[in-house]
Amino acid sequence: MSDTFKALVLTQNDGKTVSDIKQLSNDDLPDGDVLLAVDYSSLNYKDGLAITGKGKIVRQWPMVPGIDLAGTVLESSSPDYSSGDSVILTGWSVGEKYWGGYSQRQKVQSKWLVPMPSGLDSRRAMAIGTAGFTAMLCVMALEEAGVKPDAGTVAVTGASGGVGSISVAILAKLGYTVAAVSGKPEADTYLKGLGASEILGREEMNQPPRPLEGQRWAGAIDSVGSTVLARVLAETQYGGCVAACGLAGGADLPGSVMPFILRNVRLQGVDSVMCPVERRKIAWQRLADDLPAKALGEIGQVASLEELPALAESITLGAIRGRVIVDPNA
Ligand code: NDP
């Protein structure tokens, strides 16, 4: 094993976030009971905000960003993991407060890890990443609210993004009828390929709703927030559920309580960062089982650490289709 390895490091200069590729050694790594060789990481919306400095994501400097990673255990003082084990890490404020996945090696806490489920490998796991994991948590939330495939159409907003693309693919595989809401007209073929039956333009869903609109959706997965979420709620049918996980379009919610009190609609928040380990394991095994390999192939593109600053800018502008897998060894 070589003494040094490559990592993307963020620092602050005059209040601006600066990113550099640096050579680090194991001694530079933070405390943790597991040393990992990082096989792959991925680019999420939050990583884009961290690298560009457009959002207050980083809470400790210098920071190695990357809110998720898949790797192989090199050394472990935890009884739960041994050298050679393949593991996944998402959330737990990694890439925000603790050093994350944009490095060839990282030291982490074993309690954050999930063993690689059967049917996945590091690369496929990071084609899924935090975005896909969150998509599965949203699907589970709809199921738990009783939204079954025969209940009607499920809307997915921000559909061409990471959470959206994987939500469309999982829902279609499970037999749901999916309406994809996207601001990218050129993504029609892609979204239909993932299993969407219907594509709606973002503009149509971005119109301020009346307190109640015609009932169109048995449920929805929303990664956009703001007016789009308010409209989805106003259009959700009696007893339906909307799983809300994101704010790509804004953090406000300009709607009314009418869908809740007159249509028994449920608004279910979804958080992936602090999700308990047992639920993580269930979600990851379901991702291995319920997300077709073909869809994952279409969703993922691979990038090096050097390419991340430009891609980070693109993801904050909503301009990335699907998922970016990060190969720190490229
Ligand atoms: P992406 O950038 O990959 O996808 C977001 C998509 O939203 C875009 O591709 C675009 O899709 C749409 N979009 C972008 N800007 C706007 C806008 N101004 N108005 C309406 N739609 C817009 O990000 P991710 O999928 O990684 O994350 C999506 C959201 O979910 C983010 O807000 C992120 O922070 C959040 N998130 C939350 C998690 C949690 O634990 N709660 C975990 C992971 C993500 P299109 O062009 O098709 O409309």
Report what the structure shows:
By secondary structure, the chain is α/β, with parallel strands linked by helices. It is 30% helix and 28% strand. Helix 2 crosses helix 8 (277-290). The chain has 2 domains: 4-116 and 295-327, Medium-chain alcohol dehydrogenases, catalytic domain (Quinone Oxidoreductase, Chain A, domain 1); 131-269, Rossmann fold (3-Layer(aba) Sandwich), CATH 3.40.50. The model has no long low-confidence stretch (mean pLDDT 97). The strands form 3 sheets. Strands 3, 4, 5, 6, 7, 14 and 15 form a 7-stranded mixed beta sheet that branches. Strands 10-9-8-11-12-13 form a 6-stranded parallel beta sheet, sandwiched between helices. It is globular and about 65 Å long. The chain starts with a strand and ends with a strand. The structure holds NADPH dihydro-nicotinamide-adenine-dinucleotide phosphate. Residues 44-46, 130-131, 134, 158-164, 182-184, 187, 202, 223-224, 228, 245-249, 270-273, 315, 318, 320 line the site of NADPH dihydro-nicotinamide-adenine-dinucleotide phosphate.
CATH C-level label of the largest domain: Alpha Beta
Instruction: List the domain count as a whole number.
Output: 2
Strand fraction band?
Answer: 25-35%
The count of β-strands is 15
Reported by name, the CATH topology of the largest domain is Quinone Oxidoreductase, Chain A, domain 1
Mean pLDDT: 97
Tally of DSSP helical segments: 10
Bound molecule kinds, no repeats = NADPH dihydro-nicotinamide-adenine-dinucleotide phosphate
Radius of gyration of CA atoms, rounded to a whole number = 20 Å
Structural class: alpha/beta
Q: Poorly predicted ranges (pLDDT <50, ≥5 residues)? A: none
Instruction: Report the helical percentage.
Output: 25-40%
Q: Could you give a short account of the major beta sheet?
A: 7 strands, mixed
Helix and strand string, N-terminal first?
EEEHEEEEHEHEHEHEHEHEHHEHE
Q: Could you tell me how far the N terminus lies from the C terminus, measured between alpha carbons in angstroms?
A: 17 Å
CATH architectural type of the largest domain: Alpha-Beta Complex
State the CATH superfamily name of the largest domain.
Answer: Medium-chain alcohol dehydrogenases, catalytic domain
Overall 3D shape: globular
